[in-house]
Design goal:
With about 375 residues, the chain is of the alpha/beta class. It has two domains: about 25-165 and about 300-355, Ribonuclease Z/Hydroxyacylglutathione hydrolase-like (Metallo-beta-lactamase, Chain A, 4-Layer Sandwich), CATH 3.60.15.10; about 170-295, Rossmann fold. About 25% of the residues lie in helices and about 25% in strands. The chain contains eleven helices and 18 strands. It has helices spanning about 5-20, 75-80, 170-190, 200-210, 225-230, 245-250, 265-270, 285-290, 305-315, 325-335, 350-355; strands at about 25, 30-35, 40, 50, 65-70, 85-90, 95, 100-105, 115-120, 125, 155-160, 190-195, 215-220, 255, 275-280, 295, 320-325, 340-345. Strands 7-8-9-10-11-17-18 form a seven-stranded mixed β-sheet, covered by helices on one side. Strands 1-2-3-4-5-6 form a six-stranded mixed β-sheet, with helices on one face.
Length: about 375
């Protein structure tokens, strides 16, 4: 005999009551904190927004008030406008709004990327945004503060690379591959065009390569972000614009540019060149062919499969909500491990970052 009508009603009411206590819920504008009356990375204009990081799919123009990390203030102002109403928090610094205690903690994804910790009436939730944690846990992103696990009751996680096939190799081995490719091209007298997202990926590439191999040229979409990273204290090698070097030097150069340069007049300035794309998607068979490039280097600013598992376990949370990526796979795996797991529908995604990677012509800092 199945449950009685009254039992079903009681269960439904209990579920509704539990949902009403949730610190973060879905709304058409984005992820919303009802107790505090603010949004986290909303995709529509709202009065109050907490921003995890400045990538185009998480940071939008038009909000009345922004709260973000102090580490990422320069990049966020460069992208959203210098005059935005922005309150910047140091790591771990807490503010209270309508009874909700808010603090930001490093996510290790890009400069200033934060996890948002929310505490209300003894309940703690953490919204991860995007984060980078490799299965090689001793490693850290060289261009931003490393991921910091935050204990909580509910963890809202990404799953961009939430499949077991995604396992990043040690960074030293990856950069050695890039250096060898660049050195071989330089010896042959052709430029090495290395494409990656203008914000985050480009700076990680610059921080890891051997600048002694030759000069480094950057696209106009990359240089303003380099300036923001340097202003924040991140060590990057000297870089040049294409107009600053003679043609002979360009034939030995490493050229760091967004993927939008493929087929552009800007790229033709380098003459004969070898091209490559740096992305976590290069782990997929056939991805390099679909990109139409000579080489593919597997470098991501997102956690790999072991990294996702490590990050979730480190929070101590028993409830996990997945926002974007391989949601169904991650939710199923979490449930098999005994977690209470579900998913939020969001407008986040790694592919959206490509649209902000830069204009095809040098000198245009950003293209949305």
């Amino acid at each position: 005999m199945g449950p009685s009508h009254n039992a079903l009603m009681d269960r439904a009411q209990a579920t509704a009551a539990a949902a009403a206590r949730d610190l973060v819920v879905e709304r058409p504008q984005g992820l919303y904190c009802p107790a505090g009356d603010f949004y986290i990375d909303p995709w529509q204009p709202v009065p109050r927004a907490v921003i995890t990081h400045a990538h185009a799919d998480h940071a939008r123009r038009g909000h009345g008030h922004y709260l973000a990390s102090a580490e990422g203030e320069g990049v966020l102002r460069a992208r959203m406008g210098a005059d935005i109403a922005l309150q910047a928090l140091s790591w771990g610094q807490a503010v209270e709004h309508r009874g909700v205690r808010i603090s930001l903690h490093p996510a290790g994804h890009v400069l200033g990327s934060a996890q948002v910790r929310l505490e209300h009436r003894g309940e703690v939730w953490v919204v991860s945004g995007d984060y980078w944690l490799s299965g090689h846990q001793a490693e850290a992103n060289l261009t931003c503060t490393p991921f910091e696990p935050v204990r909580c009751h509910c963890f809202i996680t990404e799953s961009t690379f939430g499949l077991p096939i995604y396992r990043w190799q040690p960074q030293a081995a990856l950069y050695a591959e890039i250096d060898a490719w660049w050195a071989a091209n330089a010896t042959a007298g052709r430029a090495s065009v290395l494409m990656g997202y203008a914000f985050g990926k480009a700076q990680r590439l610059l921080a890891g390569v051997d600048a002694g191999i030759g000069p480094i040229v950057v696209h106009g979409a990359v240089e303003p972000l380099n300036a923001a990273y340097r202003a924040a204290g991140v060590a990057l090698p000297p870089t040049h614009r294409v107009t600053e070097l003679p043609k002979e030097a360009l034939r030995r150069a490493l050229v760091v540019a967004p993927p939008s340069v493929l087929g552009s007049p800007w790229l033709r300035r380098f003459g004969e060149a070898s091209d490559a794309f740096a992305s976590g998607w290069m782990a997929l068979r056939g991805a390099r062919r679909r990109r139409g490039v000579d080489r593919g280097f597997v470098l991501s600013d997102h956690a790999d499969w072991p990294g996702l598992q490590c990050a979730i376990a480190a929070t101590g949370a028993r409830r996990v909500i997945v926002t974007h990526g391989y949601e169904a796979v991650m939710v199923r795996w979490l449930q098999e491990q005994g977690y209470e797991a579900g998913a939020f529908r969001t407008e986040y995604g790694d592919e959206a970052i490509e649209t902000e990677a830069g204009a095809a012509e040098e000198g245009i800092p950003f293209a949305e």
